[in-house]
Amino acid sequence: MANYTYDTKWQSAMTELNEQVHIEDHTLDVEDGQEATPPPEVSMLEAFQHYACLYIKYVQIFANLEECYDQMVHPQKRIDVKQIMELVMTRVVELKHDLVKWNPPNPDVRTTPERNFPWEYVNLDDLLVDLKLPPSLLEVPVPKYFVEDSSADLKKRDRLVKGYMKLKLGVDTLPVEVAEESVSLADTMTLDEAIQVIQRNERGRQGKQRGALVRELREEEKQRRLYDNAQTPEMEPELAAANIQRVFRGHNSRGKATIERDEELVFIGMKPPKHDKATALEMELSLAKIRRKTLQTENKEDYERSLSDVHETVKNEEGPFMKEKMLEERRKWITDVMAQGQLPEDMTGYYLMINPPPVEAEPKEEEDAKGKKGDKGKKGGEKKGDKKGKKGDKGKKGAGDEEEDDKPERPPPLTGPSELCTKLAGGVNAFESVWLERDESDNFQQKYDIDLAKDVVRGPVECQVRQQVDDMLVLQLSNIKAQLEAAAAGKKGKKGKKGKKGKKGKKGKKDKKSKKAKPLPGDKIAELKGRTPDTMLAILVEQKLVNNVTPCAVSDFIGEYNYLGTVYQSSDRRDRWGNWVPQDPSAAQLRAAIVEYCVLPLGSSVVRAKVKHIRSILFYGPKGSGKTMMAQAIAHATGALFLNMSASNLVGKFPGKNGPTKAIHMVWMLAKAMQPAVIYIDDCEQIFAQGKKKATDGPAGYRKDLLTYLKSMDIHDRVLVIGTSSNPMAGEVKDLKAFFDKFLYFPYPDYPSRVLLWRSSIQHAIQHHSSSGMTPRVPDDLDTSTLAHISEGYSSGSIRQAVENTLSARRVERMEKRPLQEDEFIGALARQNATFADDHEKFKNFTAQVTGLKETRDAIRKALAGDAEGADDKDKKGGKKGGKKGKK
């Protein structure tokens, strides 16, 4: 694509962003001197629809900006695109949290008055239909600059890890251990049994071949006898030519019809196009992107090298004028102060005059201090009043408190000024003033702009000149002061000493504040004191706690979008106990949640500092559902260090009473020193096991310190704890909820996802084993729909494993002679682990517990039962009163 393409896409994205900013902040359209009308109160459904529309538009803008930043070669444009893109990323994550919070609840969990019931899996299919947009627009992109912009630091870290692995373990890489549960025939056979199977198959093959040969010879003999016995009259040459023409025309017409039918099916999207042309175009596009990346790197390096030269140019050309102006302003201020009979010691007063502090800052602090004292007095009075009130007014006060506590939270105003909207509006204005009307007709190579480079370095030059001017004036003031002190016979010497004491007192206060930070458990262990991150890395590599991830992307989690999500969510589906059954999340919803909760905050420090702090997340679901793969995809997308603290990986490695503390301390300190980092805990139900198990060497011994170190994480720490579990009900749900901030359920794939899984797995296996340059296609007559039906209840990992066991290298080579059949996969699929309805029910119960669904149901039923009992009591009282009147 040409540079004009990405410039146009950038301009279009900024135009859409300008529209969204004005929708979010209605005060931007208000003229000066006029007051903006306050936004009205809205219901939960109106808030959800408002946030949903904003979310869809912001995701589109984010996708366009990410593509522009990835392919633009102009260095200064890329800087501006990145700044605005990080703000848009932040807004996307914020809107996702708002959508989860104000997701309209199912009628089964709806209360009166209406309360919000946060639900992680948001359905926007009905809104996409109204906007006439495809579901693919909701795929949140993963920015490539997370890895590319910090490639030098990541390579340096990877070389260090590789060196320690070679030194300590004798290997270059240490992949993540994944337990494969598939059963192969080679594991269940002895050598003699295998030889017997091969001999039996070979005898059968020879017998089939001999029988086919005999059948062919008999058919030839039969045809020969028929020909000899037949007395067919000779055909006229004209008639024979006509028959030949008829057969040829029929064959030719049928061939043309087949070609036209295939072209029509390709045109309407019912059949994939041939790969010959598409593959060539894709190769050309990939080469063009590589060339643009090379040019992008060259222009960036050229721009960074030129900044020092431009800095010297601006300093030499504009520096003297800046210095003269600053000296004039500061000397005028010094003259005014000296006219009042004072002599300034430094330039602090001048900067306070230019930028005065807010006037209301100190009075507010005093009011707060007074308020705290007043609150203390109130608390004491309340306690005394409570003691008296227990005798008499006990019920009234409790009722008022319950009314305040039970008041549901209402949606915030949908429009209005905010910090993020102000920054976005500033970014749009900067784009319009700098790039919208800029003429770049002569900049074909997209080199840096010298005028913009001068604007960048002008600020540092001004700071440098300002420092020089301030130092020079302070030196002159000190000389004047020394002359005045000498003339006054040193009368002000004591004041200087008092000032020094005051400074010492301030330092002492700061030291006291810094000592209040509570030390971590590992800081008390003498063995860990003074250890550098390199030393900790060497120890953890030796203990195999540092792993290399398999290169994979979030998009490798194959699955279809749920086109009827809203219908299923509002439908009245109930289990045998009469409870509403929530739908399983789709693969598209999981991909979006993983990118928004894990990838974007971990990859961008701007997003991490602005959005809700998610320190830990739990992936739970059946074995082979893709939990470990997604943990590795998160680390691969952000270039994070992968630290494996799985229960099976910790057993016996850190013995002793302080062993768990040492391990956790080194892992956390290394993760913070080499962030971004992912701390992976597989089978975390063993660490958070039910019951108070306190085994020193067991996984349960890590529970206490894990929670302590998790709480010590700061909002700026780009560290994420990812736990996985295929049996979460075996763990203590209370401890899991206390440790993990988010829970994502990886269900069994539904029917459309299984169709995609079968096709993608078969295509991957064919491509992997194909020896030719061209990638073979999946046969069009292969019925993947039937395979998807019979594989219901199997996880995505089981389906992939069945395909890998079936499509060996030899089988792929013989596909042209022996077409692929559906029944070939049935045997391999039958040997995989199947899942039953009871396991699915366990995951449903765990979801109800960690999401608060069970508690909400119980509270609603309890309230309904209480209302019913109250109504019965009223009826009984009414009946008794009526009976007494009758006696009278």
TrEMBL record:
Alphabetical list of Gene3D superfamilies matching this protein: 1.10.8.60, P-loop containing nucleotide triphosphate hydrolases
PROSITE patterns reported for this sequence: IQ
One Pfam match: AAA
Compositional bias per record (Basic residues), positions renumbered to this chain: 491-518, 877-888
Coiled coil (residue ranges): none
Domain of life (superkingdom): Eukaryota
GO molecular function: ATP binding; ATP hydrolysis activity
Protein name: AAA+ ATPase domain-containing protein
Organism: Aphanomyces invadans
